[in-house]
Amino acid sequence: MKKWLVMTTVVLGFGVAASAVDITPYLGDNWYGLYFNGEKVGYLQKNVTVTDAGEIHVIEDAQFMVTMSGVKQDMSIYSKRAYAPSGELVHIKAEMKDPAQLSTFHAQVRQDELVLTSVLGGAVREEVFPKPAETLTDALRHAIWVEQEPQPDDVVHFSVFEPMYQKEVSGISRIVGTEQRVFNGVLTRVYEIHSVLDLMDIESTSYVTECGVTVEDVVAGVFTMRLEPKEAAKDVDYNVDTMVSNAVILEAPIENPRQRDWLHLALRGPLRETHLISDIRQTMRQQDGYVAFYAEKTDVDALTLPELPIEDEALAKYLEPGTYVQSDAPEIIEKAREIVGDESDPLRMAKKLCNWTSANMRNVFSARLSNALEVLESMEGDCTEHTVLYVALARAVGLPAKKMAGLIYVEGEHPGFYFHQWAAVWLGDWVDVDPAFNQLPVDVTHIALTEGDMFRQARILPLIGRLEIEVIDEPFTEDAPETDTAEEAAE
User: Which of 57, 118, 247, 435 is deepest in the core (most CB within 10 A)?
Assistant: First the structure.
């Protein structure tokens, strides 16, 4: 799982009139070290400036240096939020540079609308959203709030537009308490603030001095942004292999993982109801102290296949193009039609697309902001790139398709469950398909934990590096009483 790199920390708004804010205390630079599960992965520079015309710019420039299966990866995420002297949002510029490309997003406020222009894979897409509620006070984070000397259990609501997610993110923050810390050689009161983002189900804890300086943000318990001197913040190397460090390594390998008819597991960790997906392939049930996972290989021959074109309104959104899934691009449509040819059977079409994607893509691990057009041009990538291209190709020929994310068992030197992406296609029911492993249907070691776009997949973030998995030798039965796992029974 690599998309944690594009996560942003919580930005707060406080219901204070933007025009009343004196930004003088916040001008200048702050530098932060970026840590993932305790390992340093990059640094961030935050800068607040005022132009000669009085426009206020809040700039964040993050650099990441990680390793993926032994391959060094660089990625940068840049954002500039511009506000009028009155505090109203004017525009947002965001860029993400990865090993393959530069993706840009420009959101411009025009009267009561926000026009977002995205450029990915050489394709330009323009979308219109309602004007967001965000103002300068949101960009100044917690600083304004703590200067008002809030008390424990005081709450505020926040809202910010995120161009990469193409959504306005909102949530609530609460003062947990205060403590005394030495800051710049002076004993200083520090506020502990707990925040929750809606939809994404992401929690964070921030520590902010009474003078408004954020000294630490901890997102989902795994990603930390820590205030450091400039040179210390920039002192980072490619020491973290995100593939291995985030995996759930098993003590003993699973026999015949790709050929198994069923798999029964016990999962322990910060799993929530939103992670528990049950469908025709897998069942997840909350037991006493763990989550029981059971999967059986899907019998695709037993499906009642739909007739094309599919006109079910409930499936319409899974046929639509998007910023990252450009299924309406001429290049995608032409390639998809070339692959399926005259085939009209949905199952055989889905298999042809899977076989072609698997056979023609070069497997390269990369920390990219994936989109179908760029992948079609480069024809390389890991599971994320395989998936986004497959979904676009499927939608281009009228097959409803969506992204899935979770875990898959991988053999080798470090056998265990690794974070993974694959797809699901509608064949009278949702059937999981993995173009990276050329599987339709997928094997039983796929553990689906979420579905949908990058915004929805962020729900997995709290699980990374915090799960334990036990293999249970007995099949799972729906009417079985809640019992101890094999490990607990042995004790």
Answer: 435
The pair of structure tokens assigned to 99 is 């090993």
Looking at the fold, whether 18 and 49 belong to one and the same domain comes out as: yes
Both ends of the chain: CA-CA distance in Å?
A: 34
C-alpha–C-alpha distance, residues 169 and 13, integer Å: 11
Based on the domain organization, do 47 and 127 belong to the same domain?
yes
Q: Which run of H or of E encompasses 351?
A: helix 346-360
State mean pLDDT over 244-268: 92
Beta strand residue intervals within 305-437, DSSP E: 362-363, 380-381, 401-410, 416-426, 430-433
Name the residue range of residue 402's domain: 247-490
pLDDT of residue 481: 38
- Considering only 105-109, 145-149, 429-433, which range has the smallest mean pLDDT? 145-149
Tell me, yes or no, whether 241 lies in a domain. Answer: no
Q: Rounded CA gap, 360 and 272, in Å?
A: 37
Average pLDDT of the residues in 12-23 = 54
CATH number of domain containing 287 = 3.10.620.30
Q: Find the helix packing angle between 330-340 and 383-396, rounded to 10°.
A: 80
Could you tell me which residue, 3 or 275, shows the higher pLDDT? 275
Question: Please, what is the average pLDDT of the chain?
Answer: 88
Using CA atoms, how far residue 284 sits from 190, 259, 273, 295, in Å, is 41, 21, 10, 9
Residues 209, 30 contacting (CB under 8 angstroms): no
DSSP state of 322: -
